[in-house]
Design a protein that fits this description.
CATH architecture of the largest domain in chain A: 3-Layer(aba) Sandwich
Protein name (chains A, B): 2-dehydropantoate 2-reductase
Family (chains A, B): Belongs to the ketopantoate reductase family.
EC number (chains A, B): 1.1.1.169
Low-confidence stretches of chain A: none
Organism (chains A, B): Mammaliicoccus vitulinus
Number of helices of chain A: 9
Number of domains of chain A: 2
Order of helices and strands of chain A: EHEEEEHEEEEHEHHHHHH
Strand content of chain A: 15-25%
Radius of gyration of chain A: 19 Å
Oligomer: homodimer
CATH topology of the largest domain in chain A: Rossmann fold
GO molecular function (chains A, B): 2-dehydropantoate 2-reductase activity; phosphogluconate dehydrogenase (decarboxylating) activity
Largest sheet of chain A: 10 strands, mixed
Structural class of chain A: alpha/beta
CATH superfamily of the largest domain in chain A: NAD(P)-binding Rossmann-like Domain
Largest interface: A-B, 22 and 22 residues
Mean pLDDT of chain A: 96
Number of strands of chain A: 10
Shape of chain A: globular
C-alpha cells in the first residue's frame, strides 16, 4: 500500500489529506510544528481532525508527497524534503503559479494545476468546492490516478497539460492583479477603467502564452471576463487576501513568471510590466 | 490698498498669508471654522499666529483671493466664494494638477503652478523652501506681481506658462504615481522595475503634452529622473501621504487630467492607463 504525505496543512493540503484518508489511504500531514487541524465541508457540520507532524523532525518516508505550502514558503521547506521522501518518491506540487519545480532537486516531480477551493481560519479548514488536480500525463501521474480512483480526488492526466497551466495563469493574472493592487474584492471590476485594465492584462497574457506555443481560442479574454463577472462582489482572491493581511505576495510565480517570459521573447506587454513593477515591491 | 484673502489654512495658504502679512498687506485667512494656525520657517524658532475665519460665515470681500485648499476639497468651498469676492476680484488657484478652473464661475481666475513647499501638522505649518507662483501673463497677474513685489512671494508672469504647467504635471505624474501605488517614499525608485515604470510614465506624459502642442527638450525624461534621484530615500509625495493616511487622492486633476487628454487625442499610453485605473479606485 502506497504511503502518502502532504506538506502544508492549509486549505488545499488538508482537503487532500481528508480525501485520501476517507478512502482508507495511509496519509501523513506535515507542517511547521506538531499540531492539529480541523476539516469540514461547507454547509456540513461534521468536523474531522487531523494530526500535523513537524516536518523538521519527521523521518517517515512517503511514496507520494504533495507539497501544498504557499509559493512564498517553498524555500523554507525544501531543506527538509529528504526527511519524508526516498529516491523513488513522486512529488506533486499543488501551488499557484508556475516555474517553482526547478527549485526541487528530485527526478519525479510534477506541478498540479489545482482546482480545490477552500479557506483556512485559525486551525480550521472549510472546503468549498472541487477536488481536481490537473497533471501532465506519464507513468507516475497515471499511477497516482489509479491508486486514488476511489477517493474524492479527481486526478486528471492530460496531453494538453501546458494549456491548462497557462489558462489558470492567465485567469490569475487578471483578477489577482487588479484585486490586490486596488485592495478591493471582485466588485472593483465595476470600475470601467479597472475592467479595461483587467481585459488588457488577459490580452497580454495570451500573447505571452502564444510566444510559448500555447494557443487559445480567439474569445479567451471574453470568456474569462464572463467568468469574472459571475464572481460575487465580495469575493476576494488569494493575492487580495495576502495584500489585505500584509502577507508576502505570490507575485514572483504568477505575474513574475509571465513577465519574465515576455521579456525573454522581447514582447511589448506594458500592462503586465506596470502592474508587475508595483506588485513586486510588496 | 488691496485686500487679500486666502481660503485654506494649509501649508501653502498659511505661507502666502505670512508672506503678505510680513510686508504689511491686509490679509484674511479663511477655513472650515474659526480657529488659529501657527506658521514658522524651517530651522527658525519664531512662530507666527494667524486667525482663521470660517468661510461659511464670512462677509468680507477681498480684491485678490488665493484658493489654497486641496483639489479634493474644491467642490465644498465653491458655494461660499461669493461670501468673499466681488465682481472684479482676481482669483488665484494654488493647487496641484490642472483643469479645475472651469469649476469656478468668475471672469478673473488663474491657476498658479506652485513652488512653495511646507508641511502642516495639527494646527502648525512649517515652511521648507520656495515662494514662487507661476502664472500666465496678463494685466491682472502683472498687477498682482506689482503689489506683492516687496513681499517674500515671487510672482512670475510667464509667456510660456503652459510649458510650466505641463512640466510640473509630468514631474508629479512620475513620482506621485509610483510612491502612492507602492506606498513607499522615494526609496522605491531603487527597484529597477519601478524606476522603469516611472520613466515610461514620463515618456507618455511628454507625448500627451506634445499632442497639446507643448514641446520639451529631448532629454526631459532623463533630467526629471535625475531630479528624482536627488530625493532623500524617505521623502514622500503629497499623493503618497494621502494614500498612507487613507485620505482622498488628487488623482483626478493630475493623472486623470493627463489620461483624459491622452484619450481625447487617441494616444496609446498604457502605463498611464494602467496606473490611473488603479489610482482612480482610491
Amino acid at each position: 500500500m502506497k504511503k502518502f504525505g502532504i506538506i502544508g496543512p492549509g486549505a488545499v493540503g488538508t482537503a487532500i489529506a481528508y480525501a485520501l484518508n476517507q478512502s482508507g489511504h495511509n496519509v501523513a500531514l506535515f507542517g511547521r510544528s506538531n499540531s492539529t487541524v480541523l476539516f469540514q465541508e461547507y454547509n456540513h457540520s461534521a468536523q474531522h481532525e487531523f494530526t500535523v507532524h513537524a516536518l523538521q523532525d519527521a523521518h517517515e518516508q512517503v511514496d507520494i508527497l504533495f507539497i501544498a505550502v504557499k509559493t512564498t514558503q517553498l524555500d523554507s521547506i525544501i531543506p527538509y524534503l529528504n526527511n519524508v521522501i526516498h529516491s523513488n518518491s513522486v512529488i506533486i506540487l499543488t501551488q499557484n503559479g508556475y516555474g517553482q519545480l526547478q527549485k526541487i532537486n528530485h527526478p519525479y516531480k510534477y506541478h498540479a494545476v489545482v482546482y480545490i477551493s477552500g479557506q483556512k481560519d485559525k486551525n480550521s479548514v472549510t472546503h468549498f468546492r472541487d477536488w481536481t488536480l490537473k497533471l501532465p500525463i506519464n507513468n507516475n501521474t497515471l499511477n497516482l490516478q489509479a491508486v486514488t480512483q476511489d477517493s474524492l480526488l479527481n486526478i486528471e492526466c492530460l496531453e494538453d497539460y501546458p494549456e491548462h497551466v497557462w489558462y489558470k495563469l492567465i485567469v490569475n493574472l487578471g483578477i489577482n492583479t487588479v484585486t490586490a493592487l486596488t485592495r478591493q474584492p471582485a466588485v472593483v471590476l465595476k470600475s470601467n477603467e479597472v475592467k479595461t485594465l483587467c481585459y488588457n492584462l488577459l490580452v497580454e497574457g495570451k500573447r505571452v502564452a502564444e510566444a510559448e506555443n500555447i494557443h487559445f481560442d480567439d474569445d479567451l479574454e471574453e470568456s474569462i471576463m464572463k467568468i469574472y463577472e459571475g464572481y460575487p462582489d465580495d469575493m476576494g482572491t488569494s493575492m487580495y487576501y495576502d495584500m489585505m493581511n500584509a502577507r508576502p505576495l505570490e507575485t514572483q510565480y504568477i505575474q513574475g513568471y509571465i513577465y519574465n517570459l515576455s521579456q525573454k521573447h522581447q514582447l511589448s506587454t506594458p500592462y503586465i510590466e506596470s502592474t508587475y513593477a508595483i506588485l513586486s515591491t510588496f
